[in-house]
Amino acid sequence: MEILNYINNEWIKPNVQEYASVINPATGEVIVKTPLCGRTDVNMAANAASEAFPAWRRVPVQDRVQYLFTLRDLLKANHDEIAKLITNECGKTFEESKAEMVRAIENVEVACGMPHLGKGEFVEDIAPGIDETMIRQPLGVCATIAPFNFPGMIPFWFLPYALAAGNTYIVKPSEKVPMTMQFIFKLIEQVGFPKGVVNMVNGAKEAVDGILEHPAIRAITFVGSTNTAKYIYATAAAHGKRVQAQGGAKNPVIVLPDADMDMATRIIADSAFGCAGQRCLAVSFAVTVAEARNTFTEAICDAASTRVVGYGLDAGVQMGPVINAASKSRIESLIGLGVQEGAGIPVDGRGISIKGYEGGSFVRPTILADVPRGSEIAKTEIFGPVLSLMHVETVDEAIELVNSGQYGNQASLFTSSGSAARKFRYEAEAGNIGINIGVAAPMAFFPFSGWKESFFGDMHGQGMDAVEFFTQKKVVVERWPKEWSRKF
Ligand code: NAD
Asked: What single string gives the DSSP state of each residue in 411-474?
């Protein structure tokens, strides 16, 4: 496979000198190379999308969504093929890759409701003979800058809504995982959108800067790490664009003594170690309250040390590798930092290799115990299969600890107490809340609602937030002869 751009319904080999090597993280082998495109290619895509916009916005919405119905069918028909590509370039297991695409497809389905979702408002006789209307109109050219960890799903938090609302689009996949989107764009090609409506440009920082600065691009969505999110938010805003930027996370879970410990352990282990911990909703630290400490610690250590780690397409594998060798060594040194800062390490996943996959970037599930409050390891996003344990005596202390963090992507509680659950739901400072849930990922018809340093912007991805984000409101006040509204 050669990674190309898709612009104006054509596959284009960019004229670049620099490429990023894409490796299969389970084997360490280079599988393709991503062309690191710059402003020339972004300009080409933005021009194509600009030219396509006037005609596309005039296509009736019920006709625009027909393209999405076809895309949905093609995504379903190619579900396994896409999932294999995700596993091979991103490392997660085949089941995890399939689950990722379920959410992508669900977003296409929700966006197919645009004839209803995008309706305006109308009030007649705000004064005799005067009526007021609110219409939603598309913005123009919009773009998504995507991270590596959900190569198939994340662009679908945005793209289907933008297209259904009448915008044209550019996707910039992560340079670490370009194959999945390239395959999905082959499906987009089969759908037969009019020329220039959907485009893809590959690359890294230079392509991103081209998108941030291009005058024709009206709105940008970004998903990735917090530092980049801050840069994207500030730079896009300085260029007068509508922007939403989802950032990193450090997601807490509180375990109360009245929780169903078997269920809590199973679900928290799946959250912390699923996708090798490279999920923005992965639980990364657990706060046990009072006597939950001993039972939970013992059970979670057992779950961590028995998890089957390997190549995600092999049968029985429960956890794949992390994205690359640099990430493995970063995760391992952060574990080392935690130990230096005083944490215990009852389960140590460093320094392993998997038979038959010696070139892979594997880190086994790791538990850091008694992590000191305020330490670097308690604050830093590790983005790997590492669960930190902390302990307090009361629910109030636990909620205070949860709320002291800089991030606010997700917070979870395991309990059988309705009052504790309600208090937590009310007070926890995070946009996605789980009660006896380890990955509180919103369905496509709800917003993906990160808070604090996990999100910069106003409207989120998915559902009605995406409809709002990709449309601008126009209010029309009309005066007609007063007699027309009089009672005859
Ligand atoms: P990243 O920030 O390194 O990269 C994301 C995108 O930004 C890529 O397309 C990359 O090419 C581009 N980019 C990277 N550095 C840049 C720079 N200096 N200037 C301009 N563009 C740049 O993130 P990643 O490593 O691909 O993804 C992992 C991160 O994403 C984690 O922090 C994770 O928590 C976060 N994430 C958040 C959510 C969420 O919903 N909040 C979802 C998924 C992932």
From this structure: EEEE-S-HHHHHHHHHH---SEEEES-S--PPPTTS-B--EETTEESSS-BSHHHHHHHTEEEE
